[in-house]
């Protein structure tokens, strides 16, 4: 109940700010607001289409086909998740400036956002291809249908719900993005909200843009939930037994290898070329300021991780022990923060905590908890669903209270998901830009904020040292997901 309230209060404060506190002022989007809505919708559509093609194709090739290097190429698809879009944009802009290339505009934004987020489509589609419709694929092969026709006529229709859910998740990241779109000069709602609030001094206008962003996100959330439910139904209808595979050789294997290696290779090459180009400048950087930035980022990340994972554990346990519909709905509401754009959440927290005199650091940690509790909670929910309820019943029949059941049974079994969830939350907090930029105290920069500030001031070379640290943390999170991907193989 408390976690759900903490998730809803900023949104209710935002709604109150728009509908009640606006006084006689007229609410309107204006010309800039319409451009930002249009820019956001174009980004969502462009990234969704390109991400669907890339993620689905690689998911099919690595799940159903067999060719040399397939296992390592499947793991490599996690690497782009280590590089936030604003870091890729800053790296490419600086690298291109030395070669006379102008990296700017909607096309580049769609490409970089796709590169940073296509892994969502890949993860869900490859799982669907691995476990769904096996009997249908075997039947199609017995009728002489080749791999491509089987893909379009059998596997793709079955996997469409999972692919759609992956597109919805990546679209939420696109709506949340602030750094890449600002650096590339693309009007978007996330940047427009902060500009209306901080630059124009128009909190009501910023709140109105926030409601438009929330409307887009609400459509994405509804679509993602419906598609996930349809995906579960397909999985239940799918056959059992060993998965059917196609063995590729010759030019077909080479083409599959090339297609699978290009996205992670480009994601690594962009910052690698940038670092190689500015290596001398990186060596001459003062590490005293970098240490201060890193200590702030790590301190915030450690506190936010501890609070968020504790909250997600309590929510997951309550959801398991109380099957009442109200508890299930409250648990779902508590996890909605991940879908809410960071700039919207920050504005809601300011509207809520500003009049009450809350500390900026408290609001910042509240924002982190709201946004990332779902990251840890999903893994815990999935792990608890694999523990038979009969184990709990046996323990309680032997005289164990709920605390003893949690300490002696659940926590040992949840050690792995808790560790992975903690690492993912930790790295997400280190990379988070919109919430940190909007809510941080004065003169309290972090690694992500400093990268964005240097890049915005066209001092991209100075952003290299904090960017390298963010990339290192991001790679840790990507490698933490490898065991999960291997279990699906």
UniProtKB/TrEMBL annotation:
Keywords for the protein's UniProt record, in alphabetical order: Cell inner membrane, Cell membrane, Membrane, Transmembrane, Transmembrane helix, Transport
Annotated GO biological process: transmembrane transport
Compartment(s) where it occurs, according to its Swiss-Prot or TrEMBL record: Cell inner membrane; Cell membrane
Residues annotated as transmembrane: 40-63, 75-93, 105-125, 151-172, 205-223, 254-277, 297-318, 330-352, 460-482
A Pfam family it matches: BPD_transp_1
Gene Ontology, cellular component aspect: plasma membrane
Predominant localisation class: membrane
InterPro entries (alphabetical): MetI-like (IPR000515), MetI-like_sf (IPR035906)
Membrane topology category: Multi-pass membrane protein
Domain ABC transmembrane type-1, first and last residues per copy: 37-222, 294-481
Family classification: Belongs to the binding-protein-dependent transport system permease family.
Protein name, as recorded: Iron ABC transporter
Organism of derivation: Cyanobium usitatum str. Tous
């Amino acid at each position: 109940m408390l976690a759900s309230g903490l998730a809803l209060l900023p949104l209710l404060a935002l709604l109150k700010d728009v509908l009640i506190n606006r006084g006689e002022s007229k609410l309107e989007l204006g010309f800039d607001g319409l451009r930002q809505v249009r820019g956001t919708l174009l980004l969502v559509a462009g990234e969704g289409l390109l991400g669907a093609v890339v993620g689905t194709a690689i998911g099919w090739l690595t799940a159903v086909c067999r060719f040399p290097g397939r296992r390592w190429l499947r793991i490599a698809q996690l690497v782009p998740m280590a590089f936030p879009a604003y870091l890729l944009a800053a790296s490419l802009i600086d690298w291109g400036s030395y070669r006379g290339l102008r990296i700017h505009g909607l096309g580049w934004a769609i490409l970089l956002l796709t590169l940073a987020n296509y892994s969502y489509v890949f993860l869900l589609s490859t799982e669907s291809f691995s476990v769904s419709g096996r009997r249908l694929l075997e039947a199609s092969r017995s009728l002489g249908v080749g791999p491509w026709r089987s893909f379009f006529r059998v596997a793709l229709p079955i996997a469409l719900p999972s692919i759609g859910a992956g597109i919805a998740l990546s679209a939420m990241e696109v709506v949340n993005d602030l750094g890449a779109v600002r650096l590339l000069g693309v009007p978007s709602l996330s940047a427009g909200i902060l500009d209306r609030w901080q630059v124009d001094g128009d909190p009501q206008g910023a709140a109105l843009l926030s409601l438009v962003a929330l409307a887009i996100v609400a459509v994405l959330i509804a679509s993602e939930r419906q598609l996930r439910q349809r995906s579960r139904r397909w999985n239940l209808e799918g056959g059992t037994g060993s998965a059917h595979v196609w063995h590729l050789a010759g030019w077909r294997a080479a083409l599959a290898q090339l297609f699978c290696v290009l996205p992670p290779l480009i994601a690594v090459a962009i910052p690698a070329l940038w670092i190689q180009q500015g290596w001398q400048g990186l060596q001459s950087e003062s590490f005293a300021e970098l240490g201060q930035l890193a200590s702030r980022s790590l301190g915030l990340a450690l506190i936010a991780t501890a609070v968020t994972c504790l909250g997600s554990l309590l929510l997951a346990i309550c959801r398991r022990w109380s099957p009442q519909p109200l508890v299930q709905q409250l648990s779902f509401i508590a996890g909605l923060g991940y879908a809410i754009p960071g700039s919207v959440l920050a504005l809601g927290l300011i509207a809520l905590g500003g009049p009450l005199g809350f500390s900026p650091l408290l609001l910042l940690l509240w924002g982190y908890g709201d946004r990332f509790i779902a990251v840890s909670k999903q893994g815990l929910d999935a792990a608890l669903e694999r523990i038979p309820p009969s184990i709990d019943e046996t323990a309680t029949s032997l005289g164990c209270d709920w605390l003893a059941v949690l300490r002696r049974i659940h926590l040992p079994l949840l050690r792995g998901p808790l560790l992975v969830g903690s690492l993912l939350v930790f790295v997400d907090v280190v990379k988070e830009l919109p919430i940190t930029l909007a809510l941080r105290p004065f003169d309290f920069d972090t690694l992500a904020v400093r990268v964005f500030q240097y890049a915005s001031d066209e001092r991209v070379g100075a952003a290299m040292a904090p960017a390298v640290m963010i990339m290192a943390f991001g790679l840790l999170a990507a490698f933490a997901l490898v065991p999960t991907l291997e279990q699906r193989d």
